[in-house]
Each structure stands twice: as C-alpha cells, then as structure tokens.
Fold this sequence. Notes:
- Helix content is 1%, strand content 48%.
- Mean pLDDT is 94; it is low at 285-290.
- It has one helix and 21 strands.
- By secondary structure, it is mostly beta strands.
- The chain has one domain: Sandwich (Jelly Rolls), CATH 2.60.120.
- The strands form four sheets. Strands 1-17-14-19-11-10-9-21 form an eight-stranded mixed beta sheet, with no helix packed on it.
- Residues 271-294 are annotated as: Disordered.
- This is 5-deoxy-glucuronate isomerase.
- It comes from Sphaerisporangium corydalis.
- Its EC number is 5.3.1.30.
Amino acid sequence: MSYIPAGSTAEAPWALRISPDTAGWTYAGLRALTLSGETVEFGTGEEEMLVLPLSGSCAVECDGVRLDLRGRESVFSGVSDFAYLPIGSTVRITGDGRFALPSARATRRLPVRYGAAGEVPVEVRGAGQASRQVNNFCAPDAFECDKLIAVEVLTPEGNWSSYPPHKHDTPGEDEAVLEEIYYFEGGPGYQRVYGSPGRPIDVLAEVGCGDVVLVPHGYHGPSMAAPGYDLYYLNVLAGPAAKRSMAFCDDPRHAWIRSGWEGVPVDPRVPMTSALPGPGVREAHSTGEPEETA
C-alpha cells in the first residue's frame, strides 16, 4: 500500500514503523517516536539511522557516546540538529517531544556523529507558486552515510513542491534507483504518484500530520499545500548504488516548467524558517538546470 494513514503502523514504542520488509522493498525505512521524559532502548540491527527532532529535544546514547539534541519547537519553527546511529548499535533515547528516525539497510559501519543545525544547508527552490524551502541535512554532499539520504521540504500554503514530477527508478548516468518515503506534517495537502510505461502506480492522497506515502517507483509530484495550510514533508531515500545520489528524471511532459522559472520571482514567504548560522540560504530557482528533487 502506497498511502499509509497516521497511526496505522504504530507498534509500541513506535508511533510509526516502516521497515524495508513492511514496505515491500530493500533499503529505506522510517520510525517515529513520541516521548514524555521516558527512555526508549533499541538496536539498529542492519540499518543506519538518524534521530531527527520534529518537536522537542532529547539525549541520544550510542556506542558510549552521548549526544544532546537541542531540537526545535516544531518543523515550522526552525532547522534542527540531529544524530547519526551506525548499524549494529544499541541506542537509548531520553526526551520530551516527537522524533523521526529515517533509516536504510547498510553494510558500512560509520561512527556515531552529531549534525549541527547551523551546518544544515538550507536551499530555496523553484519560483512563483512552485517556491519551497529544502533543508538538505542528510543530502549526499552534506552528511556522510552509507546508503541513507534524507531532506526536509517546507511548502507555503497554496504552493506546489516536488515539481515538476520526477522519478528515480531507472539505472543510468543521469538517474539513480531509489526507494522513497514521504512523511508529512501540517496540511492538509495532496500527494501525487503515477507510473511510467510498463510500471503502473496511481496515488492521489490527501495527507496531513503523520501520514506517509511510499514511492517504490514512478513519477512523484506535485506535493500540494492546500490554501490556508503550510505543508512539511520529510523525504527518506535509499538505493543500491555504492555512491549516494539523488539523480532523477523529470516527466518529459512537464520538464519545460524549470525553464519557465527564468525571471519569475521567488515567493517572498520562503525560506519559511531561518537558516541558522552556517552556510546560509542558497537559491536554486534562477537556472533551467535540474535540481536534486524535492
């Protein structure tokens, strides 16, 4: 099933649990955790993971290392710090708030690490009503992992993101094969996924806080924020390639949209949250060259 309503995969202590096995694919997974001061202990097994505060803060203990995550009030209030957890580890999380744990099956064991909010590259993409903010906290060029890729996207009310529609399902120099998870907050909004010749998939789902859409293949987009409601989504991606990449192929029918952004001003509502001290905000709307999805 591609559309997963909030709460439908809850499995204590997890408010959301999607594994590669339950998704019916090989690599990408996602968990969500709600804490009110208690401690949760678990093993990462064969998955590398991140701990990403959606709201609130926590302490993460792993491999004899303690990382204190300052977190944030909500996904719409700022960029968050995060923690990286390697495969084959025992983890303890103590905190107060809601936390996402993007994951990917991996084979290379990297050290426990802290990702500072101030080092997260914040990017403005698109133009006009396709303007959106992308927090590239675990993009391939921003943070080292074995297989895991994760970014956050904030779309102002009434705007479209993940647009033009694109796919990552055919191996080649210009397209990476990736499984992809969309996890939503805010809304209501709408998410579209549709197939390419010989590979059918057809999803048009109304999405809100805690809902998930799985993209095993096919074109995905647009993500539409309904008027009056800002939309957030966390993208989790992973695939078989030895080198992480977010390379994609636009739907040829809509690829012209990118060149149509030339000379169109960016929506002044983005970035929607401040870029904390660090690399600042990069605009990627003014050229017709493809971006990295979202």
